[in-house]
Amino acid sequence: MVTKGDMLYAWANDKANRERGETGGAVTALLKYVLESKMVDAVYAVKKGADIYDAQPALITDPNEVIQTAGSIHCGTLLVTKQLSKCVLNADPKMKIAVVVKGCDTMAMYEMAKRNQINLDNILMIGVNCGGTVQPVMARKMISEKFGVDPDTVVKEEIDKGQFIIVTADGQHKGISIDELEEQGYGRRSNCRRCKMKIPRQADIACGNWGVTGDKAGKATFIEVCSEKGVSMMDKAIAAGAIEVETAQQKGIEIRGKVESAMLKLADKWRKKDFTTMGTGTERLEAIMKDTSKCIRCYSCVESCPICYCEECSTKKSYLVTPGTVPPDFMFHLIRFVHVADSCINCGQCEELCPAEIQNSRIMHMIQNDIEGMFKHVPGVDMEMPVLTVALENEERERLAATGTDQIFNIFKD
Fold first, then answer.
1. What residue stretches are annotated with the 4Fe-4S ferredoxin-type domain (predicted)?
2. pLDDT at 412
3. How many CA atoms lie within 13 A of 84 on its CB side?
């Protein structure tokens, strides 16, 4: 019997899953099993599109199609949660879904659940360790300039043991230190460098290759069981013969801890570098105003942010932000900061998709980091409400219409 907190080595019984999947194919086998057993109605995961630089979200209901999602894609920078909510759950809110999630995805799940955008009771989260992702354009540039390899010949990439590693169609393996690449302006997205959610323990299970040693190295997945839902899934999958498991070796557990610790220290280094270089006080405000002055008001940051969920966006209110002006008034960005900053999960989507290349994620994460320091609230790790908790939007709009004031709390006396 599996118990919460267990650390296991797991691998698929099915040969196709073992060969096509990462490190023994345990995740692929589990996804296939939960569909076959009707534990869930669908699987939502990422699959490779035209090449390794093309990550595509996939909603799968046929167990035989789960194999399409096997393998990791570090050059795919999707955040699956908002797409899941808008494109799938809006149509069928009661659908039970198994979702493959990295750290920022799990954080988004919790923050969206707080805002009633997702019902976690209907979600089975299979977490995967994440050392970071690389923008497709950056990946191609890096592979060409630093590795001296045609990006179109690369069939596999991975981040392992502090290196970005590529495999070409003719079987060549090449690896370069992530530190070396990033000091020269290549490497992971900036938000990934700052991320401290490397092992997503908020998921029902957390899976990866860190800590798999001995004869199981490369042939099994390290799984940490993090919830009772995770316990139930693992027990049933083992009983059904979908996967096999054994207790993780103590040496492997220690290695996994050291890998995580090293990545957290690296994240602290990047936070210090990214945040302190923007200065403090007036200097920081001027830097933010200068960067955001490039805004073309496309609303990509709003549409992609998992924290933004308002039915009527305040940035579109003429009495707050002058309509039709480009760049918009700085109030546009102040509204975003106030609404999002206490709950920013540093997913990077606002910066990733900004056509004006504004450092949105860096700015928002910097503000969130300051708020976290003051109030000790860490977004996305549990269901604790954010510091700047708000009332239900529809009720507040009715109250605003009835009273003519946006004052929620009676803190000002006549």
1. 286-306, 335-364
2. 38
3. 34
By mean pLDDT, which of 111-115, 178-182, 397-401 is the weakest?
Answer: 397-401
Q: Which of 210, 235, 269 is the last residue of a domain?
A: 269
**Residue 98: Cβ-neighbour burial (10 angstroms; 0-12, 13-18, 19+):** buried
- Encode pLDDT of 340-376 as tens digits: 989 999 999 999 999 999 999 999 999 999 999 988 8
pLDDT at 2: 95
Is the same domain home to 176 and 247?
no
Q: Would you say the C-alpha torsion 144, 149, 151, 155 has a positive or negative sign?
A: negative
Provide the residue range defining the domain that includes 239.
7-130+197-269
pLDDT digits (tens, 9 = 90+) for 138-161: 999 999 999 999 999 999 898 887
- The pLDDT value given to residue 410: 42
Sheet holding 7-12, edge to edge: 55-60, 42-48, 97-101, 123-128, 205-208, 221-225, 7-12, 243-247
Query: What's the confidence (pLDDT) of residue 389?
Result: 55
Tokens encoding 396 = 């507040």
Give the whole-angstrom CA distance, residue 121 versus residue 144: 45
Evaluate whether 2 touches 10 at the Cβ level (below 8 Å): no
Q: Contact, 70 vs 20, CB < 8 A?
A: yes
Whether the pLDDT of residue 287 is over 80: the answer is yes
Say which residue, 341 or 128, is predicted with more confidence. 128
Q: Please, where are the H alpha helices in 69-201?
A: 80-83, 103-114, 136-145, 178-183, 190-194
Q: Burial, 409: exposed, middle or buried (Cβ in 10 Å; 0-12, 13-18, 19+)?
A: exposed
Average pLDDT, the chain: 91
Q: Give DSSP secondary structure letters for 43-85.
A: EEEEEE-SSTT-EEEEEE--GGGGGGG-S--TT----HHHHII
Is residue 274 assigned to a domain? Answer: no
Q: Which of 321, 363, 370, 371 is nearest to 346 (CA)?
A: 363
Q: What are phi and psi of 406, to 5 degrees?
A: -100, 15
Residue 132 and residue 159 in contact, taking contact as beta carbons nearer than 8 Å: yes
Model pLDDT, residue 407:
53
- 111 belongs to a structural domain: yes
CATH number, domain of 166, equals 3.10.450.750
Assign residue 302 a region (left: φ > 0; alpha: ψ between -120 and 50; beta: otherwise).
Answer: alpha
Residue 175 in 3-state DSSP? strand
Structural domain total, the chain: 3
Q: In this structure, are 20 and 100 located in the same domain? A: yes
CA dist 222 and 386 (Å) reads 32
Out of 153, 168, 187, pick the residue that ends a domain: 187
